[in-house]
Amino acid sequence: MLELAWGWLTFCMLSSSLEALQPAIQQLEEWKIDAPHCDNFCQSLLEKLIEKDAFNPVILRALQPLMQSDTQKKLCWKQLIGCLRKLKKSGGQNLVRKALDIQELVSLAANARGCPVENARRTLESEC
């Protein structure tokens, strides 16, 4: 189980919730017009899961809708950078390295950035 600010969630509940979020994540770019900080939820959720050792790469499927256009890929990249910055702020460079050890996260970043995985890893580390 995973302890978050709003209580206890099982991974199954969280996983199905993230899959339910996919349609919302597709509209994230539009929502940012009216609510510029609405993407903080996604960044914070990823950050807390990594920080609490509760991260499962299946969760990254929720970001797959952001891989359909160049604009959406930029937004996906920003979500990953935002997550890493939150990790750095809450736990320092050790948490950032922990996140960068998650191959699926770095692979998603590479796809979003359109570059090799090692370039994405270096860029993620330097930008956070």
Automatic annotation (TrEMBL):
Could you tell me the keywords of this UniProt record? Answer: Initiation factor, Protein biosynthesis, Signal
In terms of Gene3D superfamilies, this protein maps to: 1.25.40.180
GO MF annotation, one: translation initiation factor activity
User: From which residue to which does the signal peptide run?
Assistant: 1-20
Q: What is this protein called?
A: Eukaryotic translation initiation factor isoform 4G-2
Organism per entry: Cladocopium goreaui
